[in-house]
């Protein structure tokens, strides 16, 4: 059973160009590694949260 989705013509054009592989990534391997490090360090920071209670 197919789902029927109503989309605008602009959205349809984008979908068709995406299916034709007309889109290319705008980042290289170095930039991708940088963002991977950011994500990993964010997870590490969440593990190291300390709660201190003031008297």
How would you sum up this structure in a few lines?
The chain has 55 residues and is an all-alpha fold. The chain has helices at residues 9-19, 29-47.
Descriptive overview:
It is a single chain. This protein is mainly alpha-helical. It has one domain. It contains 2 helices and no strands. The model has no long low-confidence stretch (mean pLDDT 79).
Map the helices and strands:
Elements lengths: L8 H11 L9 H19 L8
Key words describing this protein structure:
55 residues; single chain; 2 helices; elongated; mainly alpha
Proportion of strand residues:
under 5%
Question: What Rg is obtained from the alpha carbons, in whole angstroms?
Answer: 21 Å
Overall 3D geometry?
elongated
How far the N terminus sits from the C terminus, by CA atoms, comes to 63 Å
**If helices are DSSP runs of H or I spanning 4 or more residues, what is the number of helices?**
2
Number of domains: 1
Mean pLDDT: 79
Main sheet overview: none
């Amino acid at each position: 059973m197919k789902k029927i989705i109503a989309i605008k013509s602009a959205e349809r054009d984008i979908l068709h160009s995406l299916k034709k592989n007309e889109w290319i990534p705008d980042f290289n391997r170095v930039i991708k590694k940088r963002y991977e490090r950011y994500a990993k360090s964010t997870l590490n920071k969440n593990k190291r949260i300390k709660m201190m209670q003031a008297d």
